[in-house]
Amino acid sequence: MDIIIWIGAAITLAGFGAIVWSLVAVVRLRRLGLDDAQMRARLARVVPLNIGALMLSMLGLMMVVVGLILS
User: Where exactly are the transmembrane stretches of this chain (predicted)?
Assistant: First the structure.
């Protein structure tokens, strides 16, 4: 069951990296000083990636917990 824990940890780290990337992307957009319509259009592209990253991290953490329970 150790393999499930390590795979889950890797998936969690990948999701966390994507969350950090989306945070950096939003900070860059805010620094551009765009008007409201342009900001909303660009943020609309980042939000689905952020949600997907959160789901990926959740899946990885669930794998870690299942691996720990089965160990």
Answer: 6-27, 47-70
- What does the alpha-carbon distance between residue 3 and residue 67 come to, in Å, rounded to a whole number? 8
Length of the chain: 71
Average pLDDT over residues 42-47: 92
By the 8 A CB rule, do 8 and 69 touch?
no
User: Which residue pairs, CB below 8 angstroms and at least 24 apart, start in 41-49?
Assistant: 46/22, 49/18, 49/21, 49/22
**Rounded to whole angstroms, how far apart are CA atoms 32 and 28?**
7
Cα distances (angstroms) measured from residue 61 to each of 18, 19, 21: 15, 15, 19
pLDDT at residue 55 tops 90: yes
In the block, residue with structure tokens 């900001």: 39
